[in-house]
Amino acid sequence: MNFSQKLGIFCLIVITVVYVYFSFFGKDGFKINRSGQKYQTETDINTGNNSGMDEPDKKEKHEIKTVKIFVTDTKGNMRSVNRKCDTAAEKSCFAFAIKELIAAPSDWEKSKGLSSEIPAGTKILSVREGANNILIDLSPAFESGGGAESTYIRIHQLIKTALANTKQPVYLYINGKQADVIGGEGIMIKQPLSEKSLDD
Description:
Number of helices: 5
Strand content: 15-25%
Mean pLDDT: 82
Number of strands: 8
Order of helices and strands: HHEEHHEEHEEEE
Radius of gyration: 36 Å
Shape: rod-shaped
């Protein structure tokens, strides 16, 4: 083996040693973990899967529930229609049902001959849901106008809507006071609301 061959082999060995050193023992290369903990890898950083990093906030649970409200048809019969309650947008599907009842019927429902006896100026002052009961407080407009028959129907609409959407006792208030008598005709209501609330 001549001198040139020996020099070539020597250079090759030096290059190999330098490559191995910087690949495994250099500043950014192999590290010994004395604590026993897994080092964070580049993949972990990019995907956020490292256990030491904060996980992204989970999206709020999204669920669609069906609630029922009651309106009347052209013959004066009580009819139920459905509304979709988005639990991510509404704090309470019961309160949502009452809100939809006060606003009903929709334009499409009107085109099908459905109507409501609840006066247009009625406002929801509050819907308070406790552990043992629910209180619905409506504005005085709820008991105004329309005569005795209209008042009976609107109360039935409210009662049937309430009973369809909760099993808790529900009480009706008008302007902050429990409504034991409704309207100028003095219609008596037995509370909590039930199918027998208007029975004599």
